[in-house]
Structures are given as structure tokens and as C-alpha cells.
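[Q] Does anyone have a clean C-alpha cell version of this?
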Amino acid sequence: MRRLAFLLYGASAYLLFLAATLYALGFVEGLLVPRSVDAGGVPSPAGLALLVDVALLVLFAVQHSGMARRGFKRFWTRIVPEPIERSTYVVATSGVLLLLFYLWRPIPAVVWSVEGTVPRMLLFALSGLGWGIALFSTFLLNHFELFGLRQVYLAARRKEAPDARFRTPVLYKVVRHPLYLGFIVAFWAAPTMTVGRLAFALGMLGYVVVAIQLEERDLVRAFGARYLAYREQVRGLVPLPKRLPASTEAPLQGD
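[A] Here you go.
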């Protein structure tokens, strides 16, 4: 019964993640949701709205990156059974995201607006490509492990999870963090950039920069010289030509 409960909990966490992710797409792009980055929510003076929005972004950054750190996991698994540690992380992240969507205060002043149907459609397509890169990257890493399903499935089968292997599948041969790159492209490819969306995009960009430093510190501890060599050979976010031939293997990342 305990293993079955873990499996049901993991599946529920994954469904919650799917709901939060679909809402995130609508929230950023302003599609089919009651509250988006530019509409809905409580009307507020720009200064107060910016303060609230920044606080929400900081909350997301602290939770999402903090709970992914190795030290926190060692402490956390003394309280939460190890098979559902990742699912609990997914629940917490989804909850914080949904809170951000609910409490976000739009700042509709326009920073830039691209005119013309074709340029606007191209930017929409670029944003869609960014979302696609982010999703594809999760499957390159192991989508079901990243979101906790594999762990509860193995626990239900009374099997031990194998050690993480160092791999560089597809996109990881040209950029170390394609998942983050996809989100950055999606957030910034805006035909109309409002102050609110700019605050969101800047906040997420700042989070990515800090998260990469913390994540790579953990990866160096886990893989040592192998990861250091990979970091020298492949750029972090900008997919420019490699300076040296990359290894055929790359890291499974924790965030």
C-alpha cells in the first residue's frame, strides 16, 4: 500500500505539473487564461505592482533552485521518503508557479511593439520554438525522471534507481543548458513587450544566471574533471561553434 500511495502521489504531482506548465504557456503568451502577464489580476499603481511581481519572482527562484540543491536534498530526505522527494519538489514548484500566476499584477505600459503581421508572426513562431526546445530538452534528460515519475515507478517495482550517467544527447552537444535557453527565447520573443512582461523576462533571466552557477557547482562535484572538460568545450546558453570537440557524453541536470 505504501508503494502504491507513492505511485499515486507521483502521478498526481506530474498532472499538477502539466496543469501549471500549460497555464504558464498561456500566462506568458496571453492565450486562453483568465490571468496573464499583461491582463487580469488586481489593478495596482506601477510601483506597487513591480514590487509584488519581483517578490513573486524571488519566491520562485528561491524555492525552485534551493530545493534542487544537493545539501537541501540530504536534509529533506530525512523527512520526505526518497522515492517521492522529486515529486514533492514538483508539487512545490507547481504550487509556487500557480501562486505567481494568481497574484501577478500586470504593468501594461508598452516598452516596444513590433508592427506588421509577418514580423509579429515570426516572433510568435520564435517564442513557440523556445517552448518546444524547453520541452524537447526534458526528454533528452529523461523527462519522467526529471518530474519524479520514474522514481515512484521504480519504488513500486522494488528496484533501485541506477546512478546518473554523464551524457550529451543532441542539443547538449552545442549548448550546456538548452532547457534554460528555450525558456529565455520563449520569454523574450514578444511582438509586444510590456513593462510587466519585461519584468518577468528579466527576473527569469536573472534566475537562470544564478541557477546555472549553483547547478554547475553540483555537477562538478558529481562528475569532476569530466564536467569541467565539457564546460570548457561547450558554451552555456549561446549555441555558438564549440571551441574544442565536445565529449559524446553529458550531464543529467537537476533543475
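[Q] Thanks! Anything notable?
[A] The CA atoms of residues 171 and 178 lie 6 Å apart.
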